[in-house]
Specification:
By secondary structure, the protein is mainly beta. Helix content is 13%, strand content 36%. The model has no long low-confidence stretch (mean pLDDT 90).
């Protein structure tokens, strides 16, 4: 993958308002956490849904995810609204992708550079949190 340029954009207004239930995803499914854009397309981290887990930053049901590339944090926990299906052609996920792509392309253009919008961070307990869901002191 080419070098990723971090860019600060205000938190996207779509993901935090996304009304997606815990039951939308199942163990074994492949998902992506959309983090930015390049060439007018979205990119993110591909993960595999492993097991239900509590998402502490939002105090809601979440999913334990496996990063197939391993690394320092092979497993993380994320809220379902952060996830988009990769393994199925899910209408809700496709609509969310389309809306997020339109939102980002307007702001970033169609440049080939890979841009990370820095909307997500990991807590000390490997909990993925969207900037709009972050609570002071966590």
């Amino acid at each position: 993958m080419p070098e990723i340029r971090p860019v600060y954009l205000p938190p996207d207004p779509l993901t935090p308002k996304r009304d997606i239930t815990h039951q939308h995803f199942r163990p074994g499914e492949h998902v992506v956490i959309l983090k930015g854009a390049a060439g007018g397309e979205l990119w993110g981290d591909a993960m595999k849904v492993v097991v239900p887990s509590w998402h502490t930053p939002t105090d809601e049901d979440g999913w334990r995810l496996l990063d197939p590339n391993g690394g320092d944090r092979s497993y993380i926990t994320a809220h379902p609204r952060y996830l988009v299906h990769l393994s199925t052609r899910c209408p809700e996920c496709l609509m969310h992708q389309k809306a997020l792509r339109e939102y980002l392309v307007k702001r970033l253009g169609n440049g080939e550079e890979v841009v990370d919008c820095r909307w997500y961070s990991l807590t000390a307990h490997a909990q993925l949190v969207h900037a709009a869901d972050a609570r002071p002191g966590r």
